[in-house]
Amino acid sequence: MLRLTHPGQPEFRMLFTEPSFLFVFLPLLLALYFASPERFRNLLLTAASIVFFAVGERSFLPWLVASIGLNYFIAVGLGAWRGTSRARPLLVVGIIRDLLLLLAFKYADFFCHNLNRILAWLGQSTLALPHIALPLGISFFTFHKISYKIDVYRGDAEARRNPLDLALYILLFPQLIAGPIVRYHDIADELVRRTVTASDFAIGIRRFIVGFGKKQLIANIAALCADNIFALPPNQLATDLAWLGVACYTIQIYFDFSGYSDMAIGLARMFGFHFPENFNFPYISTSITDFWRRWHMSLSRWFRDYLYIPLGGNRSAPSRTYLNLLLVFFLCGLWHGASWNFVIWGLFHGGFLILERLGRGQWLLLVPKPLRHCYTLLVVMVGWVFFRADNLGHALSYLGAMFGRAQPTSNLHPLAMFLTPERLLALLAAVIGSTPLLPRLGRHLERTQPSLPSALRNSIDVLRVAALCALFVLAVSQVAAGTYNPFIYFRF
């Protein structure tokens, strides 16, 4: 179980990487699921998801169940009143309610802190910070609830009469905590009827193990290096060490979050659900526009379909389009965390998206592709500094160290101190894993394998299974050694 430090929150939570999940919860659930009649499987998955959430989050469970119940009745009303004057006000009220709850839980301290700075400047008495505990996964299941109501309102989905279907959609444990953000219409049919083939189950296991390996063998090892470097005072950072720190964090956040997404997609596949992909090798992008087509794709699509397009999207005048982009990325940054760091990170990316749109983006095509790739990585890595730093001042000081503004008095922390053989191996694996090289080799092998002699085909199949087993054992050994970090996106 994961030990947390947030005040007022429980110390332990269920994690995909915990032995209790890997060797108790998941095997028991799979056994019960496939032993149960089909008509009871949704109920079983809902109950299991409640248990998954309730481990460490018992105090929030009644609130979550009540929220699902209210959303059920709102959606039924939206379905019944679709096309009438009553539907839109009901939708607005439902969305405002969801957003107010999110604001109360996630942003109360942020707003009070900034209000207190204004009050102090005016010489007025300040307010006590509320310090409201943050429910696990609130950002993600808030997006799920909002998209469900909007889909029903638009006619893209029908309101479910069976409240269990909605409860399972919101609570389904693979995506409950950190996504991917699954729109209701993506899995509406599978909530009612689904089958699990042997192929689907095998793909699910393979996907889960790959994600597990990403997290334990790459992300966590990179995190140790990144955390050690970011913990140093910026005036003790040489330029090369500062770049190593942000490079390690760049690796950590991708393999941490894509690893979680792989595990979530794999788990869902084992139970017959097909979740959307969330990453498509974002670090091979040749522009920031391309990056956001590849990074956290479920979030990008959500903001595009439910905010950017309703605001006018690309259909408005260029100035209005740029304003829409800035607003979307301001909210995208704020969604990631109640801190000005995240707001700056969002606006930073929004600014480069606008820059790339100037002149219809033709100027960027004049740059050789390798240079476009370097430009994209540079922008992304600079942006990650704002994402990782403790506060805005820390981010600016760290950037100063990266670009030679800091002048350490002595070489207190040589680069070799942080580059252990284990970390170098993890970094090499990360570089390879950040490209589509291995998937392409796998697809090539699948195409050519049928033409090979049967003995060779069988040997290849055995080697694949052995490689997966070895990956799983290595990842479990890292868990046993206690070398873990909490998933980064759990805090959002």
Number of domains: 2
What is the string of SSEs from the N terminus onward?
HHHHHHHHHHHHHHHHHHHH
Instruction: Return the average pLDDT rounded to an integer.
Output: 87
Percentage of residues in strands: under 5%
Instruction: Please give the alpha-carbon distance between the first and last residues.
Output: 19 Å
* Number of helical elements: 20
Backbone structural class: mainly alpha
Unreliable residue stretches? 1-11
What portion of residues is helical? 55-70%
Overall outline? globular
For the biggest sheet, the summary is: none
The radius of gyration is 24 Å
Secondary structure: number of strands: 0
Overview of the molecule:
This protein is an all-alpha fold and 492 residues long. It is 68% helix and 0% strand. The protein has 20 helices and no strands. The protein starts with 18 loop residues before the first helix and ends in a 12-residue tail after the last helix. The model is unreliable at 1-11 (pLDDT under 50).
